């Protein structure tokens, strides 16, 4: 066996190509198949799959999605499968894989999954594809839309209330439309409470490089920023690290409740209750009552919310806290929208 | 508005540190005639191993464990390249992908499904008295964490070993003209094997630096392309230690500049700033074309008589 292997590999260009095919196809397949934990393959069962664009250990966007998938398993007895995907080509390929396996519900966790969902939907009419974020609707494609800008606006007010330097900042992974609108609302909220406050917006260009997240945070503190709103998934953990080591830097977390990651430096989190939203959709799909649509969640139904940490109540002035509360209750009634809202 | 230059230079050195370990390793490998594109895999596995060892035994053990994990990845690469004599570029790419997948899988298993990350305290900055008080460059060079100081010793050490020892001569000969090494009674494959061990170890320490000196935790793919940048740095540095040093500082500057530019609120699209390091590399490669050259036998598989078995 060993001799065959060795002869096969001894320099001939044709054999080299074979080598390339074997290695390059085998290894990533190994990597991803280990990542996906598929349970069960028999027909008839209610099966739900989740595609995340990043690692579920980020304690943020992807972690909360995985928690949602587990909630679907535990509450509805669904068989679940999760896979982490890297490139847009993977999005489509994995959608197809689950469609072909007759999964009832496949969730692409992000705005960026819309195009892939549209391309595969017609081929697998029995499978319902849902994207977290987006506005795309087909007979078997739906989107979850979160009014993430509302709690982001409140977070901006809270950040402004605690800033001593009147310079605050945001760090994003990449400039996805939901991230940008959230940052814009954050800046608007800060301006409402403290007109003239400086808000610096930055992006890392990726969602993985924690070291870059930390360095960007340090660079911002050097420019005087003392509160940073991070929305960079795994890379955002580096932002928290900078605050843990730094002097007087405060962080606003996002997507999941990150208040316990570094309680001494976190003034709150802009939370999406992803498990709640996932469970709602999965229940509809399981009972057969599902209708394709954009399913909107706002501050009113508490699926997106501003989650203050004890630090905020302790450090902010009562006047500021009262103003934050009043805007928040107006938002709950639906009579206050962050300025510049594009989508209804 | 004044631009505080000290913060910038500190960020340059911090950004260059993990890269410098990997690039020094790659320099040793390439001078022996092997291009190791598997660095990315060694870095990311080193990062994970260092996290685990730091939890158990503390940060120094973390650095060692990172190096050991990198060494293991280096051994996989060496087995395919030196024993099976497979194409170096292809094996390197595959080993990088393997390392990324393997570390992600093991990390997920360790964190029980990957629901929450493991955190460790990072190494403190060690201020060297007096030297750290030098204006401008003092804090950047002499108020850093332990791995940076290790590098201050490692650069001269590698340069000395390459140019002033018999072993270094044999290693460079293996990269230039393997038959001469055989004629002198040495085995080029054995030399390359040792070079790959050093390379893997150093890349692993580079990955460990990301964890124990910078972020205190692990995330899938946190190497973020540094392995491939290190390979570019070695070519940029014309396969010389001093060149590699300048190369990692150039990349450190480019990434620090990107953080600085955005935090100053410069009104340029962030993607352009992010692309700066890569544009700089292309420009530098074009400008340096022809000055100095790659080891003559770089990337070539040894013939049967010269291989390990």
Radius of gyration of chain A: 22 Å
Strand line-up in the sheet with most strands of chain B: 1-2
Main beta-sheet annotation of chain A: 6 strands, parallel
Strand order of the largest sheet of chain A: 2-1-3-4-5-11
Largest sheet of chain B: 2 strands, antiparallel
How many beta-strand elements of chain A? 12
Q: Give the % helix of chain B.
A: over 70%
Can you write the helix and strand succession of chain B as a string?
HHHHEHEHHHHHHH
Number of helices of chain A: 12
Please, how many domains of chain B?
1
Q: Name the poorly predicted regions of chain B.
A: none
Terminal CA distance of chain B: 65 Å
Q: How many H/I helices of chain B?
A: 12
The chain pair with the largest interface is:
A-B, 58 and 54 residues
- Strand segment tally of chain B: 2
The rounded distance between the terminal residues' Cα atoms of chain A is 65 Å
């Amino acid at each position: 066996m060993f001799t065959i292997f060795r002869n096969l590999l001894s320099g001939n260009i044709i054999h080299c190509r074979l080598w390339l095919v074997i290695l390059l196809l085998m290894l990533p397949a190994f990597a991803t198949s280990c990542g996906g934990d598929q349970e069960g393959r028999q027909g008839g069962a209610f099966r739900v799959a989740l595609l995340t664009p990043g690692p579920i250990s980020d304690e943020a966007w992807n972690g909360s999605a995985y928690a949602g998938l587990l909630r679907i398993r535990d509450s509805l007895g669904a068989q679940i499968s999760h896979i982490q995907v890297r490139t847009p080509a993977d999005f489509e390929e994995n959608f197809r894989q689950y469609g072909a396996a007759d999964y009832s519900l496949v969730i692409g966790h992000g705005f960026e999954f819309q195009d892939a969902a549209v391309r595969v939907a017609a081929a697998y009419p029995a499978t319902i594809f849902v994207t977290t974020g987006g506005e795309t609707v087909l007979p078997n494609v739906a989107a979850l839309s979160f009014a993430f800008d509302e709690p982001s606006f409140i977070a901006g007010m809270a950040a402004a209330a605690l800033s001593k330097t009147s310079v605050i900042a945001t760090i994003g992974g990449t400039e996805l439309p939901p991230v940008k609108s959230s940052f814009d609302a954050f800046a608007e909220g800060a301006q409402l409470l403290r007109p003239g406050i400086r808000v610096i917006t930055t992006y890392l260009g990726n969602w993985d490089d924690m070291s870059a997240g930390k360095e960007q945070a340090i660079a911002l503190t050097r420019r005087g920023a003392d509160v940073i709103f991070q929305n960079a998934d795994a890379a955002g953990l580096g932002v928290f690290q900078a605050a843990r080591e730094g002097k007087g830097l405060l962080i606003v977390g996002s997507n999941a409740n990150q208040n316990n990651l570094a309680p001494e430096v976190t003034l709150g989190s802009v939370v999406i209750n992803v498990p709640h939203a996932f469970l709602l959709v999965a229940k509809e799909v399981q009972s057969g009552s599902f209708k394709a649509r954009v399913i909107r969640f706002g501050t009113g139904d508490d699926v997106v919310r501003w989650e203050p940490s004890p630090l905020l109540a302790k450090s902010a002035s009562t006047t500021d806290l009262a103003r934050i509360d009043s805007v928040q209750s107006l938002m709950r009634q639906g009579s206050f929208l962050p300025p510049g809202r594009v989508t209804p | 508005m004044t631009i505080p230059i000290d913060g910038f230079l500190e960020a340059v050195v911090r950004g260059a540190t993990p890269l410098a370990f990997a690039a020094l390793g790659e320099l040793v490998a390439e001078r022996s005639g092997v291009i190791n594109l598997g660095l990315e895999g060694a870095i990311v596995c080193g990062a994970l191993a260092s996290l685990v060892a730091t939890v158990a035994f503390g940060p120094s053990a973390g650095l060692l464990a990172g190096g050991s994990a990198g060494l293991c990845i280096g051994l996989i690469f060496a087995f395919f390249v030196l024993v099976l004599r497979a194409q170096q570029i292809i094996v390197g790419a595959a080993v990088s992908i393997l390392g990324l997948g393997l570390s992600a899988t093991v990390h997920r298993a360790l964190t029980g499904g990957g629901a929450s990350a493991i955190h460790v305290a990072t190494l403190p900055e060690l201020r060297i008295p007096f030297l750290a008080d030098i204006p401008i460059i003092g804090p950047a060079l002499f108020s850093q964490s332990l791995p940076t100081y290790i590098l201050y010793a490692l650069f001269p050490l590698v340069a000395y070993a390459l140019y002033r020892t018999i072993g270094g001569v044999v290693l460079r000969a293996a990269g230039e003209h393997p038959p001469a090494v055989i004629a002198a009674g040495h085995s080029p494959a054995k030399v390359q094997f040792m070079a790959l061990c050093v390379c893997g170890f150093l890349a692993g320490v580079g990955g460990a630096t990301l964890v124990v000196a910078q972020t205190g935790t692990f995330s899938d793919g946190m190497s973020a392309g540094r392995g491939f940048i290190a390979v570019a740095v070695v070519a940029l540095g014309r396969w010389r230690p001093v060149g590699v040093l300048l190369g990692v500082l150039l990349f450190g500057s480019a990434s620090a500049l990107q953080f600085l530019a955005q935090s100053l609120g410069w009104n340029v699209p962030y993607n352009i700033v992010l692309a700066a390091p890569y544009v700089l590399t292309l420009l530098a490669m074009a400008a340096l074309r022809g000055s100095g050259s790659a080891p003559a036998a770089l990337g070539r598989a040894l013939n049967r008589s010269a291989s390990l078995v």
